Each structure stands twice: as structure tokens, then as C-alpha cells.
Amino acid sequence: MTAWGRPLVPLRQFVVKMHSRCDLACDHCYIYEHADQSWSARPKVISPDVLRSAAERIAEHAAAHGLETVHVVLHGGEPLLAGHDRLRGAAEGLTTALDGVCALDLRIHTNAVTLDERFLDLFDEFDIKVGVSLDGDKAANDLHRRYANGRSSHDRVLRGIALLDRPRYRHLFAGILCTIDVRNDPVAVYDALAELRPPRVDFLLPHATWDEPPLRPDGDTDGTAYARWLLAVYDRWAADGRPMDVRIFDSVLRTLRGDSSLTESLGLAPADLAVIETDGSFEQADSLKTAYDGAPVTGMDVITHSLDEVAAHPGLVARQQGLDGLSDQCRACPVVRSCGGGLYAHRYRTGSGFLNPSVYCSDLLRLITDIRDRHMSDQSVQPALADEHLDELASGLGSTATTDLLAGHQLALGRELLSLVWHETPPSEPGAAAWDVLTELDQEAPEAVDSVLAHPYTRSWALHCLRGRAKADSAVRGVAEIAAAAALRAGRATTVVVPVHGGLLRLPTLGALSVGETVEQVVVRADADGFRVLAEDRTYTVAWKGDKDPAWQGLRVHELDDWSVVLEDTDPWRDCHGHPAHPRLGEDEAEAWRADLAAAWAWIRRELPQYAPGIAAGLQVITPLRPSSDGSDISSAARDAFGAVAIARPADAESLALLLVHEFQHVKLGAVLDLTDLYDPSCDKLFYAPWRPDPRPLEGLLQGTYAHLAVIDFWFARWRSADGDTARKAEVQFSRWRDQTAEAVETLAGSGALTPAGERFVAGMRGTLRGLMTAEVGAEALRGARQAAGEHRGAWEAEAR
């Protein structure tokens, strides 16, 4: 199905209004206090019939479009007013309808004033994540969030959050939503929220339009009061070591490096959300209620209309146009790919509709550019790993913030290597012109340059040039490829001449174009919808959306839940993993990869959630390898390709999950070793490694030991989540690798070659293993583990003799 001449964008997010009234009277509420007042004519509580039809429509839509996951938020008004039975009915109906169709991410957003253990037991039963509205400390919160009689809601909200923070319910806590009021002290608001230890905070700009602009303090002459407020929070958050995710800051940083946004308020991703009201009517995003009366209306309902019809509604399609749907002023803005024009509702002005910049335009421009400059400044000096970062990584894990620190240092290394390559490259006309383009882009669109330099195989290219392994023209060609890719990512109509090798134009982070063996150079230039490549007497046209030249091999980007990952099967420099890289995947093989990655990622998030934040933050690229001749699993992480792992697609999703967590351990430790000396490099002794047939140098043993912390966690989770023979085999594997990794840790500790930082790191690994030693395994599993370990050691010793 198409929508207004474009392929239909399926809907993946749904807000189900459980109750249309609220027990608070917040004076900044977009439902009750803004232009659209349709709530007053709707039923107070959603009916079982509407819930049933809504679940059926969502399941029907998910099946038709092969969706991997749908996200449903139970909302209001205040959804807890719907009561336990009605909420249970919603959870049961959605779970049943989607069983066997796709995964369900079910959440509820509440003011928490009536949240109790009975509700939380229900949410635990159905794994319903809970988000809570809170605007900061008591003074900040009570500025708006009060009962109708003016009484404070703050203490009751804190009581609800305290319940969520109990160990039995902590896994349900999704985070806090905080609406900004610039009259509140930003640091005090941040501190009050951080004290509650939420996993995530959403700071929201108050809903406003050009007709009803936001409150601005006296003296806000440049219109950046909200940016200054948020930047004060950003600085405090960064100084604290980023203890929780902050959606707006994480989204800015992600979009600056070319990834997707985590919020509809930023970025250019198409809207994919629909609202189901208590009367069963379909509406667009609730934020539109602030524009004008009837703005969210579609005229459709769950009884008589499909979600395909909703997705094709002009109002939704208008929010799926990317750059094409923005005003001329927005399209010319240097931060448009991060800002995306801001929240759609905030663009509204009578007479011109939504074809305007955001009413927060000046705030968004300053926020994005200042975060960009702060982030670049942070990376301009090699960051040292503080003890707390080293300890966290030594445990085998790594938070988003710590992984970002490693990634930032790798980017700084990439910049240094690029400069060294250019310094040692003989002058040439194409090279000099490309370098000029790159220099200009680095001033005007540094985030686009960073996105290309952060590509894992850019470093592989640079090191080959510097080590003299690459052909003489590789340096000039690589600089031109980077300049062209950065210009295209920045949307700049800049012409770049790029030398070609082997008939292939490489555009790192984008893909490759086959132009014929006889072509020596091409001209690359962006246009309104994509780019053109002039090669001798032929022009290739590549559109970002729609038809593409058959010669174009674009990277396949998979947007999974909170993880954006690329299947890289085009870059010639990807062949650095010690195993043959798979050639370009066919469509069926690529689809099989997508399905397996989605299933493996769902397994990791469910069974190994402690590894998910680091992987989502630091693993950008998966390079497919050729399968082994005997069907055994193959995987690798190259020391000089941070952010990438290479894998031959295994037989099942669980095996893929194991390879992902295993290899990403190597990626992290490689980055640690770039920052911190953990051992004396002059040590030339070789050591026994329980997982290898050959003696290993100290770094090899360290790498294997660290990777096996994740292997142990995998087998423990597999043991606990499976049954029958699968569980018995997993128990043996857990027992074996736990005990042998502990042995390897003691070998490292006794090597005599560790630095003080290395001793601290190894002690951290020992501490993690000590906790795993408390898990009791059965006698049969213990015998099997010891037998396997003994056979390996015996074979190794026989070979050594």
C-alpha cells in the first residue's frame, strides 16, 4: 500500500487511552488546558469491546507488515483510574492478540499518585514498564502538578517512585518525564530527579505554538532561555558521569553522529505513532492538541478502519516527509538533521499551518551546537579512564556513558590518524581539493565528518596507509571518499572528485557504487533527493528514498529497539578480521540476517540486559563472514576496528546473541588498551588459555579471559531460561567456563607483568567471578565440565611436548 504516492510507513507505536479524566489538575496539560477539548465528550473509561478491537487492529497491522516489535503505552488522562481489572484486560488482550505475531513492548505512563503494590504486581505479571511524570523537587513540581484544590502531589508521587525502586519492582521502572519551566532552578531539578535513580529522564519543552508561544523570562532577547536551562542540566549530568539516560541529550548526540533520534521531538525519522481514544477513535499524536481544536482528528475508528488506512492519513504522511516536509528556513539550517524542525506541533502558526520552524527554533539551534561543541571539546584531549570507569569495565559490563567515553577516544584517534595520513601524502590535485572540502565541512558540519571518521573501517584504511601496506594512491582515494561521504551526510551540494579502485566507489557509512573496471575517477555531488555520480560518459543517480540505480550497494541499517546497527558488506577495508568477509548479501540472506539480529537482540535485552546498553552505544557495524566449511561458528573483532564485529551467521538467534556479547567484549577491551597500559608490553612469555589450542601471549590471554566473562553470563542465562537437554548442556558450559575463566584470572594475576591499572582490572574480573561462584551446579554437570576441561588441557600439553 502507498500513501500519497509514497510507500506506506507502518505504525509501530500506539498510545491507548485507558481513561479520559485525571485526578490532578496540572495547568500545563496539553489534554485539558490547550486548544483541543475533545476529551470532555469522550467516555471516561475505554470499553472491553474497544480494547478487543484495538488489539486485533494492532495485531493485524503487525502481521501484514512483518513488524518485529510494537510499542504500546497505556495512557490517559490518568490510566490508573481505569482500575486493575480494565488494565488487566488491556494487557491480556494485547498479549494474546500479538502472541506469535511479534514482540510486545507494553508500558504505562502515570502520575503515580495512586500507584500501589497491587498495580505493580499486575505490571510485573505482564512486564509492563512504568513511566512517571515529575517536574523535579517539591517547589518545581508544585508549580504545575497539583490537585484541583491546589494541594501538592509531590509526596504521593515520591511514594509511588519509592515503591518502584524496591528490588522486586525495580525492573519495571522506565523513567521520569519532566516538563521544563525556566523559572525553576535547572540544577536543583536535575539533582532532585537524579536522587531517585531513574534509568531515564525525559526533559520536555512545554507545548507551545507561534500562536501561543512559550513563557520566556524578561531579558531573553535571543530566545534561548530553554537552551540555557537544558545546557545547565547537561553540564551537571556530564559532570556526574551521566548516571542515567537523558533522552534529549542522547538524541542530540546520536543524531550528530548520524544515528536515529530517540524522540519524535528531534531528527528526521518518519512518524509511526497512532493514538486510540477511549471511544475507539484513531487520532494522531496528542501533542497536536496544542495547535488547534480538532488538529489530531483522523475521522477513523478501530471498528471500521484498518491501521493501514490510519497510516495513509494526510496528517500522518505529512510527518513522514523528512527534509521535504520542512520549511525553507529549516532545510537551510546547519543542524537540520539533528533538529528535524523540532516537534511537529510546535511549528504551528495560523495561516501557514505547520510549514514553519519550531517556536523553539533558537533554543534548538543553540542546544545542538553547544552540545556538539562541548562534546568535541571533551574529545580533543585524550580522556583518561577514571578508576570508576576501569572498575565498571573490569566487571565485564559498560554503561552507555562509559562506552561513549571509549567511543569518543576512538574518534579522537581517528582524527589524529587522518591528519597523519594527510601529512605523509604527496600533494595531488584531487587530494588537495578533497582535503579543502573536508576542512570546510569540519568547520560547518563537524558532526557529518565525525560520523564518517567513526566508521570502524576508516581506521583500518588509515593504518594500512601509515604502515605502508596500502597502494600509493590509497591515501588520496581514502581522503576523497571520506570527504564525499561527509558532504553527502551533511546534505551539502559540494562536488568531490574521487579516485576509484577496482571499479568501486567507496562511500564509508553509506555504501558502494560499481562503476566499471576502466573508470579511474568519478565526480560525486549531492542533489535534493540523494546524489549523482558522473563516471566517464555515464551518470548514476541514487535517491535516498525510492528507486536506486542497480549499481548502488547501500548499507542495510537495522533500527532495532534502542539499537541502530549496520550490516557492512560493501567496504573493501572490512576484510581485516582474520576470516574471509562475505561478499555482498542477496536480499534473502540480508532478510535472514535482519530477522536473526532482531531475535538475538530481543534475547539479549530479555536475558542479558546488563550488556544491552554498552552494545547499543558502541556496536555500530556487523560484518558478515563466509561460513565455515564444517558448519562451526566463526566470529572476530579486529583490534583496529572499534565498533565492529565480524560474524558468520550462525544456526540460531541464541548462538548469534552469544557471539555478539562475546566479540563486543574484545571491542571494549581493545579501546581500554588504547587508553591505559594494563601490562608490560615487553613480556614475551606464553600462557595456557583454556579456550585455545595454542599458547597465548599475555594480551591474548587477557582478551580471552575478559570475553569469557560474557560467555559465562550467557550460559548462566541459557541454563536458567531453558529446560530439558538444552538446560543440561548449558549448565555444563556454565560450570566449565566459570571455573576455567577463574583459573585464567589467577594466571594473569601471577604473571608478574601487570601494571597497577592491570592489577586493578584483573581484581575486578576476579570479583565478578566470585559472585558467579555462588551458583550451585549439579554433580553431573560438574563432572561433565571437569572432563571437558581435562581433555582440553591434556591435548594442549601433548601438543606443547
TrEMBL record:
Signal peptide: none annotated. InterPro entries: AKG_HExxH, Aldolase_TIM, rSAM, rSAM_sf, rSAM_SPASM_FxsB, Sulphatase_maturase_rSAM. CDD domains: Radical_SAM (cd01335). Residues 8-242 form the Radical SAM core domain. Keywords: Iron, Iron-sulfur, Metal-binding, S-adenosyl-L-methionine. It comes from the Bacteria. Pfam families: Radical_SAM. This is FxsB family cyclophane-forming radical SAM/SPASM peptide maturase.
